[in-house]
Amino acid sequence: MSQPCDLTNNNISSIENGTFFNCDRLVHLYLNHVPLVSLHKESLKGLPRILDIVVIRAPDLCYIEPVLFDFTVAEYITITSDCLRNLSGRIFGPNSSFVGSIHIEFMPKLQEISRKIFDGISYLGKLRLRYTELTRLPKGLFDNTMIGSHMDLSRNRLEYLEDNFLESSPTLNGLFLYRNNLTHVSVDVFAGLKSLKTLLLFQNRLTEIPTLKHLPKLETL
């Protein structure tokens, strides 16, 4: 029988290598409001290949080593930190083929992410990458990952979007870009988004309405 692991509101500042070895029945991991400072690729080793929920809300977290997560399927992953400034390299291992939802949010110091951060995930249902200091997304960030239904990039400081940055996600229904610093959106930014129904751009710095010719199913703007 699968079991949760809830370590919320404990004074856990580190996770030793091997802590989760042989914990192949754990499907929920909650590390809410814990003083973790860093997470290394061996920290979560031993968790099962199929996970339901991983929640890491650690205000003091300032470092995540690449390839932290190595699973086949996960339904929901959240990472929140007040101190993290960059996410370098890929977080997900080569076996992470399907993820239902990823929330990387409420990170007031996050200024940089690697273009490889999502490499290893072939399908991601929903992405929330919001409430950060990001001013742009790395070129090719989503080239190897299909975003299935919704992407929320709101409440960052995005100034620029690459052309065709979501062309690998033709089934995307909702794209939320509100409360950023966009001044211009070129004609091909939304190329390939033939299923998009909702595009939210309010509270940016746009001086003209973007060209919407690539969005034949758009219903809400």
Written overview of the protein:
This protein is mostly beta strands. The protein is built from no helices and 13 strands. The strands form three sheets. A nine-stranded parallel sheet has the order 1-2-4-6-8-10-11-12-13, with no helix packed on it. A two-stranded parallel ribbon has the order 3-5. It is globular. The mean pLDDT is 93.
Quick gist of this model?
The protein is mainly beta and 221 residues long. The chain has no helices and 13 strands.
Strand order of the largest sheet: 1-2-4-6-8-10-11-12-13
The fraction of residues assigned to DSSP E strands is 25-35%
Mean pLDDT: 93
What helical percentage do the residues reach?
Answer: under 10%
Radius of gyration: 18 Å
| Intertermini distance | 46 Å
User: How many helical elements?
Assistant: 0
How many beta-strand segments?
13
Approximate shape: globular
Topology as a string of helices (H) and strands (E): EEEEEEEEEEEEE
Structural class: mainly beta
Q: Note the main sheet.
A: 9 strands, parallel
Report low-confidence residues grouped into runs of 5 or more: none
Break the fold down into its secondary structure elements and pairings:
Layout: E1 3-6, E2 26-32, E3 38-39, E4 50-57, E5 63-64, E6 73-80, E7 86-87, E8 98-105, E9 112-113, E10 123-130, E11 146-152, E12 174-176, E13 198-200
Parallel strand pairs: 1-2, 2-4, 3-5, 4-6, 6-8, 7-9, 8-10, 10-11, 11-12, 12-13
Question: Descriptors for this entry?
Answer:
221 residues, mainly beta, two-stranded parallel ribbon, globular
